[in-house]
Amino acid sequence: MTQQVGSNIERGFTRFAGGVAKATGRPWAFALCVASVVVWALTGPVLHFSETWQLIINTSTTIVTFLMVFLIQSTQNRDGVALQVKLDELIRSSRARNTFVGIEHLTEAEVDAILAKRKKRKKPAGRAPGRRQRNGKKT
Question: Beta-carbon neighbour count of residue 137 at 10 Å?
């Protein structure tokens, strides 16, 4: 029962985070933010540029930024994992080397070592790999 509740909360949060990330990436969301700042700026003379006037914009932008960081991070984490799974499946289904599947879980030093090894094995410049000569043989 507890797992199902947790799963429902996670599913709901995922839908909410995805919807917010999609909505805030739209031009109207940017226009709304600009309009809010303009309205705030225009109220400055009316409120005599008081500390409360300044506190309104500072507090609201801090709260929005704080919440958006978590929503955007959640969306990016999910997208990154989905992309990695798709790439792994492409590697597995092709003639590519399966040793690259899952390298995103290695340490930075281990990935650097793989990169260095790949650079050493890099083919010399010249004909593109897979191109055929006129006699049908690969070069």
Answer: 7
**Residues ≥6 apart with Cβ < 8 Å to 95:** none
Amino acid at 53: W
For the chain, counts of helices (H) and of strands (E): 4, 0
Give the C-alpha separation, 70 to 14, whole Å: 12
For residues 127 and 133, give the distance between their C-alpha atoms in angstroms, rounded to a whole number.
Answer: 10
Contact 37, 57 (CB under 8 A): yes
User: Is-contact 21 72, C-beta < 8 A?
Assistant: yes
pTM: 0.60
pLDDT, average across residues 47-60: 94
